[in-house]
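Dear Dr. K.,

Following up on our conversation at the group meeting, I've run the structure prediction for Acyl-protein thioesterase 1 from Probosciger aterrimus. I'm pasting the input sequence below exactly as I used it, so you can double-check it against your construct before we proceed with anything downstream. Let me know if the numbering doesn't match what you have in your notebook.
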Amino acid sequence: MCGNNMSAPLPAIVPAARKATAAVIFLHGLGDTGHGWSEALAGIKSPHVKYICPHAPVMPVSLNMNMAMPSWFDIIGLSPDSQEDEAGIKKAAENVKALIDQEVKNGIPSNRIILGGCALSLYTALTTQQKLAGVVALSCWLPLRASFPQGPISGVNKDIAVLQCHGDCDPLVPLMFGSLTVEKLKSMINPANVTFRTYSGMMHSSCIEEMMDVKQFIDKHLPPID
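The predicted structure tokens came back this morning:
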């Protein structure tokens, strides 16, 4: 289901405590698995929301001397002008869109689904024709940013709510990347719907304050409907 490996394990899921009327699909970062985020999300869960944390396929990653590790696509470098794995990014986004379609088939409309996590969540939200409730982008950047139009996008998610979070001590994806990404986002979608939060002393990780901001965003954009 995920990436290029059709035998990737099934996602880690935190089921809703009652009937699920909304879903959060959360994508982990490089070298991680869905289990870490499923545990973190279980700590902030709402009873009507299902949390789906897929696992990336294991593949050689150029950035890490071609060592095989869980990754949604190949990462060649982490500077703004690094070459990007365009085919891999697009394929991974199609797999995320298939996960959204699966939840729609399960009875959760796409506008009751939030995408979250790594860079792939931002790219998918801005390229899908499925109207989403929002996107949470943590410690990341917008892949293939040069492929987007200058100025506002025209798709169904041109008014999507975005929560972007970044640690000010991130040694892997510098805060500058987050700042540049937020400026790009504000030129593409309704800037009033873009929130950028930074966390003092946080590295390429998460913290309690960030998780509370994520919970608040999910609760606001996926309120109970019954």
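Two things stood out to me. The domain at 12-221 is CATH 3.40.50.1820 (Rossmann fold). The first helix runs from residue 34 to 42.

Best regards,
J.T.
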